[in-house]
Input
Amino acid sequence: MKLKLSPAAVGMFVLGAMLLGVIAFLSFGGTNIFSKPTRFLIYFDESVSGLDPGASVKVNGVRLGRVAAISVRYDQPSKEALSRVVCEIDRNILTDNQGVTIDLTSPAEIQKLIDRGLRARLSLTGITGLLFVELKFEDPRNYPADPRFMTEQYPVVPAIPSPISEAQQSIVEIVANLKKVDFAGLSKDLKTLLTTTNKKVAELDLKALAERVGKAADAVNAFVSTPDAKQAFANLNGAISDTRAVMAKLDGNIGPVSDELKKTLADAQTALKSLDAAATTTRNFVRDQGQVGDDVAVALRQVADAAAALERLADAIERNPTSLLVGKKKPE
Output
C-alpha cells in the first residue's frame, strides 16, 4: 500500500525549518535585520592584512559589531595610503556608571564617546593571524582626533598604534641599529687583540717564572728557618729594646750633665753597636739569597741608617753635653 503524505504536514515541516533558520540567523549572525545598523569609520595608517569583512568589533573582548567594508584611501597632503574600515554596531552592550544603556545606534552618542576618548586598534585573534577591531578608551589628549576626517559621513574613531605595529617598529629600529654597527671593524679589532694577546703570552716564559717563584719561596723558608736568621732577628729585637731604654733615659736626664748621663751615652753606644751588628748579619745573609731579599735588604739599610744617625747623636752629646740644655750654637 502506497503511503500518501499530507500537504499540511509537509507545509508545517517547511515552515518550522524556516523558523529555525531565522532564529539561528538572528542568534548567531549578529545582524539586526529590522533596523539599519549604526556605522562608524576608522582610518589605519598600518597594514590591515588579516582583517576581513565580517571580523568582529569588540570592547574588552565583548563583541558589539562587525567590520562591514574595507577600502584604501590615498591622502594627497600626506602622500600616504590609509586603510578605510567601515564598522557596524548591532548590539547595545555598553552602559554608563549608573547602569543605563548607552544607545550605540545613535551617531551622536558615538561621537560623544569619541570625544571622551574612544579609540580603535587592531588586535590578533589568538595565533590564527586573523585580526579584529578592538575599541578602548584612552586619554584624548594623547591621541587627538584627526581634523582631516571631520567632514566624513559617519563618525570617525581615531586609530592608535596596535601591539603588532609597535612590535614591527621595534624590529625595524633594531635592524636599523644593527646596520649602523661596523662588524667588519669590530672583527678586525678583535683579531688584532687576540693576536697581541697570544704574542704576549708566548713571550712569557711561564716555566721559568714558576721556577723562580718556587725558588723564591724556598729561599724565604730557608732564610726564616736558619739559626742565623733567628739569631739576627733576636739581636735586632734586643737592639731595638736597648735603644728605647736609652732614649727613655735621655728623656729623663734633661737636667745638668752628670755621671748618669755619661753612663746613658755609653749604654746608647753599646746598643747602637748591637743594632748595627744585627743589621749587618741579617743583610749579609739576605744578600746571599739573590733577588729574594731585595725588600728586606732595603728595610735593613734603613735600620742601619737610623742606627748611624743615633750614633752621631750620641757622639755629638758626648762632645758637647751642654747642647741638651742650651741647644745647638748658632753660627756667628
Q: What stands out?
A: The longest strand covers residues 62-75.
